[in-house]
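User: Fold this, then the next.

Assistant: Folding the first:
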Amino acid sequence: MLFASTAAHHGMPTPPEVLAVLDDPLSPDLPGRLRTVSIELSNPGLGYMWSKFGVVRLARRTAPLWQQRGARIVSLSPASSTRRWATRSSRSNR
């Protein structure tokens, strides 16, 4: 089970060179490689978003490999909701 966030789903365009760096998260020089593709690491909000984007991408890329072994990959992106139906539903479950 992988935990992502709605921060990973903001639909920004991602250049192929950024995807290539994110696809190798165990690289010994990951921070340096991220800087070479212009990912700003000094901004905590952007760092969080990119890390969660990487988690979602990892789930999508590895799910077929795990499926061949009979396993499933689950990636959760929890979020709070202020929508009327969600608020009403949570009150009714108390």
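Now the next one, as you asked:
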Amino acid sequence: MNQEAKKLWLDELKAVEQARGCLRDGNRFCVAGALCNAYVKETGKLHWHYDWLANYDRSWVAVPPLEVIEWAEIPTALLDNLMGLNDGGTGFEKLAKMIEEEA
């Protein structure tokens, strides 16, 4: 995994409240939404439109887009696992530990 992206993601997990079942819910984010938010802050290439991640071509997504995954250089299997655990009730502290160890 891209180590700078990993650091930004872990910082984001410490800074936001947790959501489940969506990338973003107001000021709360799921584990993947926190990764997307780190990407938005770092690159400015995407933006949030309410609770949807929006591309400047007006496409909206509810899952991390490929450009975020490629930027982070995260294996999709790991991201899928983390998203499933997040939505199943695993807290950010445990998810952050998994990211530190596995990514």
